[in-house]
Amino acid sequence: MTIHFSKYQGTGNDFVIIDNRDKVLDKNDTKLIAHLCDRKFGIGADGCMFLEGPTAPEDDFTMVYFNADGNESTMCGNGGRCLVAFAKDQGVVGDVATFTAIDGPHKATITNGLVNLEMQEVDSIIEKPNHYWLNTGSPHHIEEVANIGDYDVFSNGKRIRNGAPYFDEGTNVNFVEKVNEDTFKVRTYERGVEDETLSCGTGVTAAAIAMHESGKTTAQKINIETLGGLLTISFKKEGEVYKQVHLEGPAKFVFKGTIEW
Question: Does residue 165 have a cis peptide bond before it, meaning omega lies within 30 degrees of 0?
Fold first, then answer.
């Protein structure tokens, strides 16, 4: 079988994207998805996405996201932004998109090459002595560190991801260092990829909210420096709930091709 694909990246977080509106590919075929994401034997990516037909009357399409291990997974913020860019390039949407992902409905806009994605509200943040935990469509452990550029993200991220209290499902792990009042650096160990990635959209969203919740910033528009580039998170806190949460950054086409399976 010949599979047509496109490759996109959002601040270095890269994805294989397939138009599967005709449902030719089975989303339960974990071997296929893992092969597509394999950097030595396949195309290579942090994750894979299918663009499928809408399931709600107001939607333009449905987002189906897979980790690099081949399993369907929770929401991916950079993936959602890249899928919107792909949908526009395919003529599915214009500069405004509405779609449903595994965590619910999303809206997005494209302006001057930047994709602004509306995320889900956050109403629960768990505070521990040395870290925060919250879900921004995917689960995230947030921990402040010093000298983040020299920090061993792989070893420490892997230890936390597989440790207590995350044994059952695991968690993504984000390390944060403050730069100034409205800017932070973030590095992320992603479950499913089982390695550090250059950027994580739901992770930087979680980090920005955690830093606001901790009092490390009063800004409600926060710049996050990742290894792959700059992302901006904005929100409004009403009571104990973070609303109007938006993730904005570039989403760029890399290449397209075919692969046999």
Answer: yes
Closest CA to 202 of 168, 233, 239, 223: 233
Can 76 be counted among the known catalytic residues? Answer: yes
109 CB neighbour count, 10 Å cutoff:
16
Alpha helices in 54-105 (DSSP H): 77-89
| Secondary structure of residue 40 in the 3-state scheme | coil
Q: What is the pTM of this model?
A: 0.96
Active-site hit among 37, 48, 82, 200: 200
Which residues partner with 86 through β-bridges?
none
User: Cα dist. 87→74, 120, 176 in Å?
Assistant: 20, 21, 32
Contact, 195 vs 154, CB < 8 A? yes
- Out of 37, 48, 76, 82, the active site residue is 76
Largest CA distance in the chain: 54
Instruction: Determine whether 200 is an active site residue.
Output: yes
> How far is C-alpha 162 from the chain's CA centre?
20
- The rounded percent of the chain whose pLDDT value lies above 90 is 97
Q: What are 135-181's pLDDT values in tens digits?
A: 999 999 999 999 999 999 999 999 999 887 887 789 999 999 999 99
- Contact (Cβ atoms closer than 8 angstroms) between residue 33 and residue 259: no
